[in-house]
Amino acid sequence: MLDRLLDWLLVCTLRDWFDLPEARPPAWYRALTDEAVGPALRAMHAAPARPWTTAELAAEAGVSRTTFAKRFRELMGEAPAAYLTEWRMDLAADLLADPQVTVAAVARRVGYADPFGFSAAFKRVRGVSPSSYRAALAGAPDERRETPVG
């Protein structure tokens, strides 16, 4: 209950701050409120594992493929496919923090049927393989424990 209340408070605070005349809201916030991009962005966030095409995303927004791709790039600074890949890799990084979830399961949950394809994409975006990323996360608490206090 308290978590939801804090989430709500954060959302309200951010909305108020973004609405200030001197504020420069981040690209994702502007895009979420855009009629041509917002519906597609919400669809990507709701179903990241779906094999989205630019045409399908444009249909979600109710605009032509060309209009959607142009407007998306104007607002987000990258193509829809590039954004979707980044979003999937962000989700994957969070999932990799759980050692009980296999790399293959992470791959499936973010839209990759092939764990090798997922590993290549993750390494391209994050600079390390999923296994190395997970190992670094697992090693971080141990390193903190060994650091002398004082």
From TrEMBL:
<dbReference type="GO" id="GO:0043565">
    <property type="term" value="F:sequence-specific DNA binding"/>
</dbReference>
<dbReference type="InterPro" id="IPR050204">
    <property type="entry name" value="AraC_XylS_family_regulators"/>
</dbReference>
<keyword id="KW-0804">Transcription</keyword>
<dbReference type="Pfam" id="PF12833">
    <property type="entry name" value="HTH_18"/>
</dbReference>
<dbReference type="GO" id="GO:0003700">
    <property type="term" value="F:DNA-binding transcription factor activity"/>
</dbReference>
<keyword id="KW-0238">DNA-binding</keyword>
<dbReference type="InterPro" id="IPR020449">
    <property type="entry name" value="Tscrpt_reg_AraC-type_HTH"/>
</dbReference>
<keyword id="KW-0805">Transcription regulation</keyword>
<dbReference type="InterPro" id="IPR018060">
    <property type="entry name" value="HTH_AraC"/>
</dbReference>
<dbReference type="InterPro" id="IPR009057">
    <property type="entry name" value="Homeodomain-like_sf"/>
</dbReference>
<dbReference type="InterPro" id="IPR018062">
    <property type="entry name" value="HTH_AraC-typ_CS"/>
</dbReference>
<feature type="domain" description="HTH araC/xylS-type">
    <location>
        <begin position="38"/>
        <end position="136"/>
    </location>
</feature>
<protein>
    <submittedName>
        <fullName>AraC-like DNA-binding protein</fullName>
    </submittedName>
</protein>
